[in-house]
Amino acid sequence: QVQLVESGGGLVQAGGSLRLSCAASGRTFSRYGMGWFRQAPGKEREFVASISWSVGTTAYADSVKGRFTISRDNAKNAVNLQMNSLKPEDTAIYYCTARMVLGGPWGYWGQGTQVTVSS
Asked: Any bridge partners for residue 60, and if so which?
């Protein structure tokens, strides 16, 4: 089992920045990758960014490329999401996730953290 705990959400004005963090505990030695998804009211959960734990390969949704940066902190067993140039449409609950196998399902989820961007 892997436990994930997010932090860092909040309210920010458009154009501002926020940094989300996700601390992992439990069976983290077999973890393949970690990522972030988000879900806005009335919409389906969507992929935001991911990073492979060993090599650090990253991937981003087109909507956040150039504005968001995902990184891993090996010492803290954590993954971060730096969000710059935030837009009102970035408003959502952001979820940290982990998977054990390349291309496998995102099987572990955090409880989510709210990000609200005001116009």
From this structure: 49
